[in-house]
Amino acid sequence: MPVATDPQLRTTRLVVYSDSSEFGGAEGSLATLVGALGPGIDVTVLGVDRAVVEWIANHRPAAKSFLVPPVRGWRDWRGTLAHLQALRRLRPDLFQVNLASPWFSLYALSAAVLVPRLRTIAVVHLPVPPPNERQRRLRRLVSRRLAAEVTVGRRTARELEALLGRASGSVRTIHNGVQEREVEPAARPVPGPLIGSSGRLHPQKGFDVLLRALPALPDVTALLVGDGRERQPLVALADELGVSERVLVTGWVSNSRSYLPALDVFVLPSRFEAFPLAIVEAMLAGLPVVATDVGSVSEAVIDGETGLLVPPEDPDALARALRRLLEDPAERLAMGERGRALARERFTAPTMAAGYESLYAELLP
Prior knowledge:
Layout: E1 12-18, H1 25-36, E2 41-47, H2 50-57, E3 64-67, H3 77-90, E4 94-99, H4 106-112, E5 119-124, H5 133-143, E6 148-151, H6 154-164, E7 172-173, E8 194-198, H7 207-213, E9 221-225, H8 231-241, E10 247-249, E11 265-268, H9 277-284, E12 289-292, E13 307-310, H10 315-326, H11 329-346, H12 349-363
Parallel strand pairs: 1-2, 1-4, 2-3, 4-5, 5-6, 6-7, 8-9, 8-11, 9-10, 11-12, 12-13
Helix pairs in contact: 1-2, 1-12, 3-4, 7-8, 7-10, 9-11
């Protein structure tokens, strides 16, 4: 007589995929998810870069790693075939593709939809326009064959639906989450008011707009935690504006969160975003946030409640918002406390993992 099997004890074979060769927010979010998923999920990390794949897999002691060659373009059939063979060998129940933009990992998605009965999930972090019409057509075609399409915010979900020609409400939102943990705080680098931000020094982040706001904040120092291609242009701009003595750049650091306790206000003046992890980290540290109203930022930075929102490309508005909080310690404290409560309720690693586990349960018989 056959023995009944409890469906709650069934192990789900999940393969997560990244074609990135760099470490960024999308890879960090995937690593956090891999570490937070429940014990009933058997995880294999598939990708094209050994360092990235192993770093993600190391967030889960039992996770396995598998490498495939990168696909060098639409004529690279060998690369696409290697992806297809890897999926047939690994035989996952679910294949989750991590995409920094909708147009990345197209060949992995194309290979996946050729595998019978494989349920494929695309997780898009930042909806941006396609680089060319061929990629738009291919991605829209592949999108119809996916089991689910996910993005990291409600506003970004609507943006992705418009880009892919999908029905309103067809893209699911699962917010990024951050693992809350104690950090050894770095020493406060200067006396007086200190504002700061963290991330790649890249035009997307709008740090040049922050520097242009500093002349209107004469006693304030700005701390930028990170490195990138814009470092030298930002240093030159600070010198041109006469604020170089009030701009500190740390360069790359292994734990940017250690600087958060030293700040009075966290600021993110991005030109475009999806749902940035840096904001959630600041909220968990009890900081009020001044940020631009782009992407799904407003789903965490609730204007007047957990921080202040300003238009992008507006240094005057940015300076006014920062001055308001710097001149009102009671409001800063109240916003920081409300932000921490909101982040703990909605944007933690366990909450993110629960959202994905609920999706997996819906997709599997």
